[in-house]
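Hi Q.,

Before the meeting this afternoon, I wanted you to have the guanosine-5'-triphosphate prediction in hand. No need to reply - just skim if you have a minute. The sequence and ligand are here:
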Amino acid sequence: MAEKKKRGFLSKLGFKSKDEKLALEAAERAAQQQQIDAQMAARMAAINAAALASAREQDTGSSDVSDAEKAAIEAEEKRQAEIQAARDVERAKQLAEEKSRREAEEAAAKAADDRRLADEARLAEARAAREAEETARQAVEAKARAEDAARLEAARQAEIDRAASEAEAAELKRKAEEEAAERARLEMERLAEDARLAEERRLAEEAAVAARAEEARQTAQIERLAREAEEAERRAARAADRKAREQAEEAERERLAEERRAQRIAAGLSPEPEPEPDVTAEGGFLDRISKGLRRSTSRMSDQMAASFNQRTLDREALEDLEDILIMADLGSDVAEQVSSNLAEDKFDKQVTDLEIKVALAETISDILTPLETPFVLGLARPQVILFVGVNGSGKTTTLGKIAKRFGDQGQRVLICAADTFRAAAVEQLTVWGERAGAPVMSGKPGADAASLVFDAMNRARDEKYDILMIDTAGRLQNRTELMDELAKIIRVIEKTDSSAPHHSVLVLDATVGQNALSQVEAFRETANVSGLIMTKLDGTAKGGVLVALSEKYKLPIHFIGIGEAIEDLEIFSAPVFAAALSGVADAVTPTANPQTD
Ligand SMILES: Nc1nc2c(ncn2[C@@H]2O[C@H](COP(=O)(O)OP(=O)(O)OP(=O)(O)O)[C@@H](O)[C@H]2O)c(=O)[nH]1
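Predicted structure with the ligand bound:
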């Protein structure tokens, strides 16, 4: 098609196709041939006319026709001959032209035919090519469709297979889970049954222990009541003695005073003033504790004296008071209690620092009195006493001081140096043990403390010691692995004697101030602390922390340490501690000699 278009366009421009050129050439050649033929026909006509004239000459040679006629005839004949010849030439020419035109037309028709045939052939060829192309394309499409269909079929089959295998796997999993759940349920039932039986056993054991404990408590109570009755009797006797002595002394004093008055009157002098009564003796209990707590007391006393010299107790004064108490480590709860107790009676009134100290002493005493708990040994033997606390809180020293007291009371004491980390602790205990007359069991440095405690428990039981005192290594409350070791020691003790340890004493260093609260928190949980001893109250201004932690944790308090010497461990007395810490003792004790630091 494109070829055909191209040719039509070329012929319009005057270009001839190859066939047209051939046809034109053939027509030219035919025209030339016709010319040649016409020339030949003219020459033949001239020859014929000459031959006709000579024949006539011969026929007429002897006739009488004039020469002019003869010439006219001859000229006429010649003209006729020439006309004829020209007609012949013209005719021949026309024929030749007619022929060459026909041939040209035929050639053109043929060329057009050829072109048409060629175009048709080309069109047929193109159609065939297109059809072949179409067939091939259809074949490719058909193949692709077939492949797609095969692929889809394969995918569908694969999906069916996958779903089937998933369903099978899910079914297997479900069955396995069912079986596992059933096994777990049976195991839970078994464990629950075991636990129930164990609980029954435990309850039975607890009931037995409780019955024994109750029996022991009742016995102890009877003994205590008996002791108390004896003591009351002794006290009553002593009081009666003292009263009689005091009455006698008073009578003597009055007699002497009367005598002196009489002598002075007789001598014309005025009577002498009455002497102040001696409230506390120098070196007595209150005096010792007041001196021990001097650092804690003096700063607070000075601040109160400076702030409350005849001051009106308004809101600002109460806030100042709370600040002073909080700075003395008594804690905000205690500070609020003191200020609200004081405000009840004295708000908007003039107060002195002594009135404030008395209110403080009363509040402290109210908080501490329920916790004032003497260190009483139970009936079980050996009595196991465990000492716990952070490093350097004074465990070893305190244990030694108490061991000495027990030794003095005639108790047989065994000491276990379960502080296997610090070699010096063993030496320290050995010295204390010697003073108390108590053997000291120790292990190699770094040995397992729990196994040493196990051995000590067995030895104390086998050798019938009254008391086993166990000194443990100091450990910071945030060191989990050390707290775990302490828990292990306690488990070993409990395993050997389910009622032990009978006392689990937390030794606290007063100099750490508020940090003591977090120590109580941690040891209370791990060591099931039964009571407290606070040491180093002599070396700090933070003694108020004992009140703060008692208010919060309400743990029994057995002793307080007010120095390193053996006699510097005092049985805890709430009113005495309150009087000493508040500074009231200084105000009423003439022997007191406050020294500020
Ligand atoms: N001022 C004063 N010092 C005390 C008191 N109690 C103990 N100390 C001293 O505190 C220091 C530490 O006492 P230790 O008994 O070794 O303390 P610890 O808790 O056994 O120490 P670790 O075994 O390291 O945990 C020693 O120098 C004691 O003399 C006390 O009440 N007042």
